[in-house]
Design brief:
Helix content is 29%, strand content 23%. It is α+β, with helices and mostly antiparallel strands. Helix 1 packs antiparallel against helix 2 and helix 3 runs antiparallel to helix 4. The N terminus is likely disordered. InterPro entries: Creatinase/aminopeptidase-like, Pept_M24, Pept_M24_MAP, Pept_M24A_MAP1.
Length: 266
């Protein structure tokens, strides 16, 4: 927002049945994210979005994994505009036309975790913000594509970084890769080793094997790579006030290629 099998030479892995169980949890997360986006209109508070997510998760027989996690009060992290991650839902934070909203959500079903995030605009957003979200999504997809048997952990990091650089070239502008934050292992706990950086040299770290699972989550900004944490001890904002985007999927390595475990309904 800790290890499965305690073998530091490989990224923790799951059986085929366990991956199916994680996909069931992940599908609930995807459904909650879609419901939140549908509710995100001008005049709606981020606390109302949180209530939509929690109701969707509980109606599906799951439990919000964020709520109460190290004292976090919400079922989602709602990070608006210059907030990067871990924004606390509030009745006083009301969405307006043109806001850029990042929603991170998790659910537990039968002891297994799903964790996913996406960024979207409220109403019509400026082109720079739309492209920022697109660049972050493309970076995540580049990381997902590198989730192959025999890859090393930092091969994923490097792929995410290359995805960002490719987006910069396509968009004709620079993006900041947020420093110090990244993805993680996930399974019967939400946050597990190893930590997955969003940039770096390839060929390092534990190997990925069939069944290895990672939450891949790049965070990009329209400016700085530097952040600070607000007085609530949760909300991470860009140091220069530039806007940020955050995309995340829980992904497994399979013999047939990467499997996204947090699919969203169409």
């Amino acid at each position: 927002m800790v290890f499965g099998r305690k073998n530091k030479k490989v990224v923790p892995f799951r059986t085929a049945g366990e991956l199916d169980a994680m996909a069931a949890a992940g599908a609930i997360v995807g459904k909650a994210l879609v419901a939140v986006r549908a509710a995100a209109k001008p005049g709606v508070s981020t606390l109302e979005l949180d209530e939509v997510a929690e109701q969707t998760i509980r109606d599906a027989g799951a439990v919000p994994s964020f709520k109460g996690y190290h004292g976090f009060p919400g079922s989602i992290c709602s990070s608006v505009n210059d907030r990067v991650v871990h924004g606390i839902p509030s009745k006083d934070e009301v969405l307006t036309e043109g806001d850029l909203v990042s929603i991170d959500c998790g659910a537990i079903l039968d002891g297994w975790h799903g964790d996913s995030a996406w960024t979207f605009g409220v109403g019509t957003v400026i082109e720079a913000d739309r492209l920022l979200s697109e660049a972050t999504r493309l970076s995540m997809e580049a990381g997902i594509a590198a989730m192959l048997p025999g890859s090393r952990l930092t091969d994923i990091s490097h792929a995410i970084e290359l995805g960002t650089r490719a987006a910069e070239k396509a968009h004709g502008r620079a993006y900041g890769i947020v420093d110090g934050y990244g993805g993680h292992g996930i399974g019967r706990q939400m946050h597990m080793d190893p930590f997955l950086a969003n940039e770096g040299e390839p060929g390092r770290g534990p190997k990925l094997v069939v069944g290895s699972v990672l939450a891949i989550e790049p965070m990009l900004t329209l400016g700085t790579t530097q952040t600070r944490v607000l007085d609530d001890d949760w909300t991470v904002v860009t140091e220069d006030g530039s806007r940020a985007a955050h995309w995340e999927h829980t992904v497994a390595v399979t013999e047939d290629g990467p499997r996204i475990l947090t699919l969203r309904p169409e």
